[in-house]
Amino acid sequence: MNVLDCIVIGGGPSGLSASLILGRARRKIMLFDDDTNRNTMTQESHGFITRDGIKPQEFKELGLKELEKYPSVSFAHATVTEIIKDKGNEKFFVKASNGQEYVTEKIILATGIQEVFSIQGIREFYGKSLFSCPYCDGWEQRDKPLVVIAEKEKHALHLTKVIYNWSEDLVVLTNGITLSPEGAAELQRRNIKIISDPIKNLIGEDGYLQKIEFETGETLLRSGGFVAPIYYRTNQFAEKLGCELDEDGKVKTDGVGRTSEKNIYIAGETERNRPSSLMISAAKGNKAAVSVNTDLTMERF
Prior knowledge:
The chain is α/β, with parallel strands linked by helices.
């Protein structure tokens, strides 16, 4: 069985970027992706210079097309199901949903994260009229009557303060949680209304929010807004492979993708267990790939 230089797991911006750098470095790699990217419901991606407003699927297709120029890069539309490391992490045996098995010297984990919403119905509007990132979607929501849905005070305060830059017509919903007097006062100084009543239903058509209904029977008219989801890694590869995590669940690295485990690298949202922009994720993939290539070079020279 041929041994790959590196397997990159995840074809989002970090995985695509890493694959491009390694392909240009003439490394024999395999990129895996199974189309479960977090931004699949996003209508447009913003903030990536020269690609502002691009659809995420188009972004991915352009990236995959560019990789075709490099003969040492292979792509598998499949899910990695198992990674087995040998003694000393010198090689990794990788099994995939396509029934194939691979051997590689190094691995880049770039599988991203996913959201969890505690309020039923949010996903129906997510990506069209409800969003999580003001820097990605704040411009399109400027000056509109917006809602901020957050069930932790620190999230409610931070998100509201940031969004206020784009729209001052804000109502904060905490879904049954009462803000501290100090926290409430911060928002009220800006004439921002706070509703702590539990949310019963979100009402709208074709993904576009119109109003929110509360358990009290009251309703609130809003055209869109921002939410604070809970995020989680889509798999436990980092943990199972022994990568060290900090108290917040972030994978510890040297700052350029190397984890605490030899020959295991990480990039993008997978590392932080928090959302990130296309630009930052791509940069993280670039850094991780340079680390991989540097280590291969020094080990073999």
